[in-house]
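Bug report

Summary: structure tokens for Lysine--tRNA ligase differ between web form and batch submission.
Environment: batch mode, default settings.
Steps: 1) Submit the sequence below via batch. 2) Compare with the web form result.

Sequence submitted:
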Amino acid sequence: MLESFAARDDLNEVIKNRVSKACDLLDAGVPLFPNDFHKDHAVSWVLEKFGGLEGDDLEKQEDVFAIAGRIVSLRSFGKVAFFHLMDQSGRIQCYASREHLDEETYKIVKKLDVGDIVGVSGHLFRTKTGELTIACRSLKLITRSMRPLPEKYHGLKDMETRYRQRYVDLIVTPRAREIFAKRSLIVREFRRFMEEHGFMEVETPIMQPLAGGATAKPFKTHHNALDLDLFLRIAPELYLKRLLVGGFEKVFELNRSFRNEGIDTRHNPEFTMCEFYWAYATFEDLMNFTEKLFAHLAMAACGTTVVTYQGQEIDLTPGHWKRLSFHDSLTEIGGHSPDFYNDYSKVRNYIRERGEKAADSESLQKLQAKLFDLDVEGKLIQPHFIYHYPTEISPLSRRNDLRPEITDRFELFITGRELSNAFSELNDPVDQRLRFEEQVREREAGDDEAHSMDEDYLRALEYGMPPAAGQGVGIDRLVMLLTDSASIREVILFPLLRPEF
């Protein structure tokens, strides 16, 4: 089989040479992919337990360490070889000598390449340069690597190759491993924070008969047995609020959602967010809760509430966050007077002059939202809660009791991008039906992101949903912030890319 693999026209000479050496190993009776090595220790355990020992204290240790990992560097000098072995927890140098290994084992050493996975056992010592090293008393090839890793000092430089071949990126790019280890920690701490504050984790459908809970283009699929068109969820919101109707008062879901929209440094069609709902709370309660949540996550991931993102210090300390109404932000940050942003023709023409679309059928409130996107959002570097959005662009939010043209809703912006959306929930079934009907009219007029009519959700509201506040937090963007990552593709293990083949 290996001979036929080596004969492939698309293989370069380096790979063919590796295959040739693999054939030599097989001829010598050495299996290339055995599954009988027992790993007793992680590299980190060895480093932590013995890394502080020197000289005689180190030599007195009689332990024989059985570790396994990938060879990431290799230097051979005739009868001795040095290589660095890396597992998930760290890397350590190994020393293989003809003097300490039997002849058959040392022949294996001479056939090893960077990228091979091996298991070793032996004793510890320090080299003349002071590096802690395992002197191999036994060595076993566990997995033969047929392809070479990128060069040590060049690595994977092409960003698309890094994302497409994440398996290689994780081997050769320490920062990539750090990002995803930190992402795991952030998600774990997010879940712990929610549970410690009385929220129950739940799961809701990914395939839904209606794409609801947000205004976005969905992905469509079909269930053959039921002959039913379904949509991948764009948000879990309406199902989570059904649970409030059912009597659960504090629920959250760490979920995957899908939106059939563009791809850029902030957007991936498949993304992770957390949505949570809190009965008898308001959007103002969620502002305070969010400050505490983000500060907790920053401390857990970065050890401080003042984090650095792309050269800027971002202060996530509770009490330091700014709060500004939507319309006030158009003036104080966007530089537009109320006379301007309330003049339909002026706003529409201005947006068109800036190169953005502004259809004559769009309402003033929608144009104001585009004005915000153009002249406000990118300037919100420090944490800003922008609240009291117009009702027309907030179809699921509760109207403000004193000003029904605005809603009790906020969006959180940090580093010039939205990280969260939240509001006091609309629980009046009559008002919700009227909002849905307006959304249906907009859909019929050509807005394919408008919300659909959801009769079952309206029926749920008619049974009575307690007053509540709900929020969604973009996990990917949050991880970007706490890992100082400029692109969302840096924090998603396998971002969507065009097919390579």
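Above is the batch result. After comparison, the two runs are identical; trailing whitespace caused the diff. The domain at 170-321+382-490 is CATH 3.30.930.10 (BirA Bifunctional Protein; domain 2). Residues 174-196 form the longest helix (23 residues).
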